[in-house]
Automatic annotation (TrEMBL):
Residues 2-81 form the AMP-dependent synthetase/ligase domain. It comes from the Eukaryota. It comes from Zooxanthella nutricula. InterPro entries: AMP-dep_synth/lig_dom (IPR000873). This is AMP-dependent synthetase/ligase domain-containing protein. SUPFAM superfamilies: Acetyl-CoA synthetase-like (SSF56801).
Amino acid sequence: AGLEPEASVAIWGTNAPQWHISAMAAIVAGAKCAGVYPTDTEEQVIFKVKHSSANLAVVDGAGKTTLLLNRSADLPKLRAVAEYGQAPMSAAEGAAHVGGGDPHGGVRRLTWDALRLEGVPE
């Protein structure tokens, strides 16, 4: 998903295997893990994602994805949002891009399965 050196992965969701997997993957990739509480307000979420220099956010549910994409102008380091759990997006939605901090055209929206395939040799 394009992690930069010293960047972080913001993980916003309830207890699920994907939360733990994302945290361990961030560490193995040399990034920091930045947890976001499910009870945080919108402004707290934006503050944490921005000030942790998150390149990637892993979230549980379309509502959280939508919030981050709608606020992507406030998140200059964010490159992608990967979604797992409740109400997963369709494959077509998973390929959608929204303008934001990415200099190549926007913040990528990924499904959990698509994120897992990032960087896997063909």
